[in-house]
Design a protein that fits this description.
By secondary structure, this protein is α/β, with parallel strands linked by helices. It folds into two domains: 142 residues, Aspartate Aminotransferase, domain 1; 242 residues, Type I PLP-dependent aspartate aminotransferase-like (Major domain) (Aspartate Aminotransferase, domain 2), CATH 3.40.640.10. Helices cover 43% and strands 13% of the residues. The chain is built from 14 helices and twelve strands. Helix 1 packs antiparallel against helix 9, helix 2 runs parallel beside helix 9 and helix 10 crosses helix 13. It starts with a strand and ends with a helix.
């Protein structure tokens, strides 16, 4: 029977019922501006303060180190631009990776136009940055390293704790260098501890953990100087001007609380769902490649390149049968170019264009996987029969 199956949870997640209920009062009767000193304003301020504690607890930070933003993109911009603009007297060299989200990569490209130099670390076939490459890239004028905690397309988890240790040791020698990690996909899915990572800056986003789109946060370690990007108000301890989005911040806080509480159980269930799907693909299908190191990745992401097809065609075919997946990052949807992340693994254009991301969420069930496995092999086979190259292969 036809059913709707949502497997694009890395793009966005549905709002959790408890999260929605936490948000609702601040859309109606508790409408005050958190900067106002009267009762209505202080009621809103209390909600923001409570959420700040909840976000801080998810990543093991101090509440005062949490800056609310409009989402992960703004958090990344504030982290990278804010850090280098406030500290460029110490150097103008940045290190990042080839598989960063565009909210990091595009910022780095823009900074190159402004006189900064950027080193893009390779990731090789397993999709993971090599520590030796990182060490070799560090220069006298390096002031910032920005490497994501986990990739949004293939789910690979980067050695951020090792990077943090290297940065900390350099600081102990007196070097002025800082470490930022984009944890938008990781936070709430795997343990995320700023003290274990030893990062100075860490970005998170609400809509990846069952809260609304339009709110996120940046962890800023105490003592780190940033040049603020939003000018026009004294909010967020002078680090981000603008009236606080109280309903969404309250929702974000609740989502962080739930994510921390349910993290282990959710991760175990999602890993089981994802692995059962991949095992069945391995048994039922041919001419495909799993992308990224399978043993070191987020519990909910499977990325597979299918030979002899275009990923966009498969996405549309699956959508017509009720299954929502992705060919890569939602933020680059509409691009005709093969995924830069898949290409960074050393895959050719065919495999890059045939890549599909299946990202599971807490609402998915074993029955969803069964339905997917009923539809997917047929959809791939039907598309392949339109490929002369595949038909030649079959004929042989």
């Amino acid at each position: 029977m036809f059913r709707r199956v949502y497997l694009d949870n890395s793009a966005t997640t549905p709002i959790d019922k408890e999260v929605f209920e936490a948000m609702l009062p601040f859309l109606t009767e508790k409408f005050g501006n958190a900067s106002s000193i009267h009762f209505f304003g202080q009621e809103a301020r209390a909600a923001v303060d409570r959420a700040r504690h909840q976000v801080a607890e998810l990543v093991n930070a101090r509440p005062a180190e949490i800056v609310f933003t409009s989402g992960g993109t703004e958090a990344n911009n504030l982290a990278i631009r804010g850090l280098v603009e406030a500290n460029d007297k110490y150097g103008k060299h940045i290190i990042t990776s080839e598989i960063e989200h565009s909210a990091v990569k595009e910022v780095c490209i823009d900074l190159e136009k402004r006189g900064f130099e950027v080193t893009y670390l390779p990731v090789y076939e397993d999709g993971i940055v090599k520590i030796e490459d990182l060490k070799n890239a560090i220069r006298e004028d390096t002031i910032l390293i920005s490497v994501m905690m986990a990739n949004n397309e293939i789910g690979t988890i980067q050695p951020v704790a090792e990077i943090g240790r290297i940065v900390r040791e350099l600081k102990e020698t007196g070097k002025k260098i800082w470490f930022h990690t984009d944890a938008v996909q990781a936070a709430g899915k795997i343990p995320t501890d700023v003290e274990e990572i030893n990062c100075d800056l860490l970005s998170v986003s609400a809509h990846k953990i069952y809260a609304p789109k339009g709110v996120g946060a940046l962890y800023v370690r105490r003592g780190v100087r940033l040049h603020k990007q939003n000018i026009g108000g004294h909010q967020e301890r002078e680090r981000r001007g603008g009236t606080e989005n109280v309903p969404y911040i309250a929702a974000f806080g609740k989502a962080c609380e739930l994510a921390k509480k349910n993290l282990a159980a959710d991760a175990a269930r999602l890993t089981e769902l994802r692995n059962s799907f991949e095992n069945e693909v391995g048994e039922k299908m041919t001419d495909f490649v799993f992308n990224g190191k399978r043993g070191s990745r987020l519990p909910n992401i499977a990325n597979i390149s299918f030979r002899f097809i275009e990923g966009e065609g498969l996405l549309i075919n699956l959508d017509m049968q009720g299954i929502a997946v992705s060919t890569g990052s939602a933020c680059s949807s509409g691009s005709l170019e093969p995924s830069p992340v898949i290409r960074a693994l050393g895959r050719n254009d065919e495999l890059a264009r045939g890549a599909i991301r299946f990202s599971f969420g807490k609402e998915n069930t074993p029955e969803d996987v069964e339905y997917l496995l009923e539809i997917l092999p047929k959809a791939v086979e039907n598309l392949r029969r339109l490929s002369p190259v595949y038909l030649q292969k079959v004929a042989k």
